[in-house]
Amino acid sequence: MKGQPALGLAAMAPIIEKVKGGGMAGKAILDKMSIYVPQGRLKEKPVERLMKLGEKRDRSVNYLVVEAILQYLEKEEKQ
Prior knowledge:
The protein is α+β, with helices and mostly antiparallel strands. The chain has one domain (13-77). The chain has helices spanning 46-57, 61-77, and strands spanning 13-18, 28-34. It has a two-stranded antiparallel ribbon with strand order 1-2. Helix 1 crosses helix 2 (61-77). 0% of the residues are buried.
């Protein structure tokens, strides 16, 4: 978003897996990613905060991250 800092999920790098067997042979799926927290954002302790919130809400960190990404996409795609 213009004029606002990055989410801290800066360098998302999808990992492409080849699905083997069945009718899906050879099709690439993008269902995993690795998230890098930039050095300048570490002071905000995003991982620790996600872990604490996950415990409080009885949800995994992965669940919280996916929900945040999907909410962000919904908001941005409306513009």
